[in-house]
Amino acid sequence: MVFPQGPFLAIATALYSFISFGGFIGNLLIIVTILRWKEMRTPCNFLIMNIAIADLAVAFVAAPLRILEIYYHWPFGEFMCKFLTPLQDVFVCVSVVTHTTIALERYRAIVKPMMKKITLTVTRAVICVTWFSCYFATALPIAVISGIQPYNGKMFCVINFPSTTFRQFFQVYLVVVFIVLPISVQIWAYVKNIPHDRRETLRWQKRSFDLARDKRRNSLVRTLIILVVVFQVCYIPRGILMTIREFSDLSNSRVFMYMDVFALILYYMKHVLNPLIIFASSSDFRSHLRKT
Asked: Could you tell me the sign of the dihedral formed by the alpha carbons of 270, 87, 140, 260, in that order?
C-alpha cells in the first residue's frame, strides 16, 4: 500500500500506534479476566477470549508492521516475509470466524434450546480447528507467493500474484468469504433470535428468582449484538474499497488513496473496540476485572 505524505502520514501513524497500544492492553485484560476466574470460563467466554487473542495479535503484529511499512523497508528477511505477512490475515480470519461461531451458538441456545449444549471440550476443539482452517484458507496461499523485492534502493515484502486475474479472484474470495458471508450469517442468526428472546424474557419475568439470570442473559445478547454492529461498520468499507481497487479506475485517484488508508485504519480499529464494548456493556466482565 502507498501511504499519503505530509500531515496525513502523521495522523495515520498516530492512529496505528493507538491501535497497537489500545488493542494490546484491552484484549490482554479480556484474556486475564477470563482465565483468572473459574466462573468466567464458559464456552461463550472462551470464544470471546479467542477473539481477544486474535485481536491482541493484530495489535501486537499487524499494526506495528503497518507503521514499519510507512517509514522503513522490510528488515526481517525472506523467511519472516513469508511467515509474518500471511499471519496478519490469519488473525483477522480467526476473529471473523469466531464472531460467526458465537452468533450460531447464541442461535442454538435461544432458538434451539433442546439441542445439545456446547461444552468446554468442544469449544477448545472448535478454536483449534478455527486457527488451522484460517491458516490454510488465508495464510498458506499468500506464503507461497510472498517474497522480498527491491524498490528505490530498499527491500520490501510483497505478494507476487502470478496474474491480475488470480489477484482479483483472491481479493473477491477474501471479501466474500470473510466479510460478506460472516456478516450475512451473523445478521440472520441474531434476527432469528429476537422473537424467541422476547418470549423467554416474558417467561422469566414471571419468576422473580430468575430475574438475575434473565438480566445476565440479556446483557450477553446485547453485548454480542453490539459487537456484530461494530464488526459490520469496521469491515464493510474495507470490503467495498478492496473490490473497487481491483475492478475500477477510481483506485488511481488521490481521494481513493486517502479513503483506502482510512478504511484500513477503521478495519484495524475493530480490534481495539471489542474489549471496550465488552467491558462497557457486560457487568460480569466489569465486576471480575475489578477483582482481578
From this structure: positive
- Does residue 56 contact residue 137 with C-beta atoms inside 8 Å? no
Tell me the C-alpha distance between 206 and 208, whole Å.
Answer: 6
Q: What is the pLDDT of residue 216?
A: 62
The answer to whether the beta carbons of residues 275 and 260 sit under 8 Å apart is: no
Looking at residue 75, its amino acid is P
What is the torsion angle, in degrees rounded to the nearest 10, for the CA atoms of residue 184, residue 185, residue 190 and residue 195?
A: 90
Give the phi and the psi of residue 50 in degrees, each rounded to 5: -65, -40
Pairwise CA distance, residues 127 & 121, whole Å: 10
pLDDT in tens, 89-139: 899 899 999 999 998 988 887 777 777 788 999 999 999 999 999 999 999
Closest CA to 282 of 233, 203, 225, 207: 225
Q: In angstroms, rounded to a whole number, what is the distance separating the alpha carbons of residues 143 and 85?
A: 8
pLDDT tens by residue, 32-85: 999 999 989 999 999 999 999 999 998 888 888 877 776 777 888 889 889 988
Amino acid sitting at position 14 = A
Q: What is the dihedral of CA 193, 197, 199, 200, to 10 degrees?
A: 130
pTM of the model as a whole: 0.86
Three-state DSSP class for residue 263: helix
d(CA 161, CA 128): 29
Which candidate, 199, 183, 290, places its Cα nearest to that of 232? Answer: 183
Determine the Cα–Cα distance for residues 129 and 283; give it in Å rounded to an integer. Answer: 31
Q: How much of the chain is helix, strand and coil, in % rounded to 5?
A: 85, 5, 10
